[in-house]
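Lab notebook page, bench 4
Experiment: in silico fold of construct C2
Operator: M.H.
Input chain length: 249 residues
Purpose: comparison with the prior construct
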Amino acid sequence: MWIAVVVALAVAGVIVWSFRRGATGADEAPDPAWEWESRLEENARVAFMEGLRACHDQAAVSEERGVLRLFGPPCAISLSLLADRFAARGQEGLHDPEGVVRELVEKCAAAEQPGVLHLTEGLPGDDASDHASDDAGGMDRAAFGAAVRELVRPDAAPGGSWFLDEAGGCLEVVVPGDYATTLLLDLGRLRERHRAARAERPGMPAVAVLRDVVFGLIAEDGPGVTWTRPPSERHRTAVLPAGERRTAS
């Protein structure tokens, strides 16, 4: 009799376990943590992450901001862009994720385009002969990057995160909205524009000139700035002062 009781209890345990497993969705793949992951089905997502991990020797990945920062040539690449291109490779990406991701990164790095920002040199203090601090209003590399960040993403601004890559010369700012997207700014090109603007307006405070330069560059949406996903008007409104929005494309 005791054998029958043990068997009955075991069967009941399996039924309860199965019910709980189904109720909690344990058999289902976990929801993607980041927007760019949701562009891939489960197997492709696993393969893509494997490929990204294999790039650790030449790049750093920020999953939260959706950015891959390539060390050389220095550039920032949208993970949404990479994920879309990886998905388009189909079975090839599943069979050779490392090779496909490396190839896609190299192709993206070859030409600047929406979602790909090449980073230039020329921040204050990069050149020993550069009296950078003079025409930068006394700002060194760190202070210049911090000043740009404070303009684009003030400390008091709600929501979103940011990352200032002083070594690479890039500012990454997450801008909330109907969907999140990350604004990428090349500090080297901002520095060059700031230098030229200061020469034209020598009596104007350096920070005031920098404000015009930063928002002018973002509004133009040309070389030196890109987004990990195309920005909506709401995103632009969150970043640009009212006086600059009319020039945004």
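Observations: The longest strand covers residues 170-175. Confidence is low (pLDDT under 50) at residues 1-30, 128-133.
Next step: discuss at group meeting.
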